[in-house]
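Hey Z.,

So I finally got round to the adenosine-5'-triphosphate thing we talked about over coffee. Here's the setup:
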Amino acid sequence: MSLPDTPTAKHLLIVDDEPVILQILKAVFEDEPLRLSCVGTGADAQRIIEDQGCDLLITDKNLPDINGLELLRLAKETNPFSEVIIITGYASLETALTAMEYDAFDYVVKPLNNVFDIRKKVHQAIEKQNLAMENRRLLDSLQERNQDLETALKETKALQAELIQTEKLAGIGTLAAGVAHEISSPLFGIMGLAEAIPDEEDSGQAAEYAREIVGYCQGIREIVVELTSYSRASELEGVVAVDIGQVLADALRLVKRSANVDGVAFDTTLESGLVVQARPNEIQQIFVNLLKNGSEAVLDEHGPNNGGTVRVQAGREIDHIWINVHDNGVGIPEDRHGVVFDPFYTTKAPGKGTGLGLNVVYRIVTKYRGTIHVESTEGQGTTFQLRLPVDY
Ligand SMILES: Nc1ncnc2c1ncn2[C@@H]1O[C@H](COP(=O)(O)OP(=O)(O)OP(=O)(O)O)[C@@H](O)[C@H]1O
Ligand SMILES: [Mg+2]
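And the result:
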């Protein structure tokens, strides 16, 4: 067995009060790549250990001045990796146990009949020591890596928290603008109706306007309630069987009254008895936004009373209701199809559009586990295809 390569020679300290044994051991290890110290007293050994430390210690157990086991303890204290071989006068179970107890690498018994045996033991001790040191080194570097990872994790968490905060702030802005957008439609309706009431001579009609105002206020209240409560229970609150035909008619009236859609033809083809479980106000929002967008697109393309049409078709499949809102307006360029539902995406003049209409529609449709797609060709028109599950 050859000695493992070591950058600096290991220090082997041999302690025995019998000069002959010291001579023999010195001869055995002289040719080894080790730094050798041979002393005859415990006191000398103690001094060397304290001054220089030692990697390997071979010591007689029964020295006249200091017990060999005390030197062992000292060696381990100054260098935890040190390995010690005890020379003892007699082999007994007790000797073996004591050596083990003191964490000696091994022990040899006098007289030293086979000196090569002790050399072999030293080689094994060196191997064990190198392994232990390599393990320590690996453990240290692992701990260092761990530390690095922990630091990186902490930094990532801090960054994430920062991002979430930024995102939240951005989200609050979007939410606020979305709420403003959602409230603005019924508000326009209310204003129109309120302005009409004083001029209305038919008191029955005026009362009808007032009832409609109450309805719109109800819608606004729902939006506000939704804002302040997020639980699933409250999500289900206000969910009723919504008659699509009825809500579409309401939305059409609202759009005609609040937006400047004069000169746009509306055409609705609905199967009868279309019902979804939802909040009426939200389904109305869907129609209001799609009808408004369609109207604006056809007026852009054709101008008023020039063939611009917004057509709504709806029907029922087994578990869902489909709704198509089609217009023959300006259309949407192919590369914009993916962004029209993004908040704040608008091609309208400043002050004309917020870019939130389709985002509101998207949020409502997906909330009811529905889907919405856009098909559009520039200069020809656009169709929004919706599917709403019958049961929410
Ligand atoms: N039917 C349509 N035809 C052509 N383009 C459309 C149509 N619907 C939406 N778009 C395009 O998508 C954009 C986003 O629509 P969205 O309803 O989200 O916002 P907006 O209409 O611009 O503003 P707001 O709805 O707040 O008035 C529009 O600016 C327009 O470019
Ligand atoms: Mg819009």
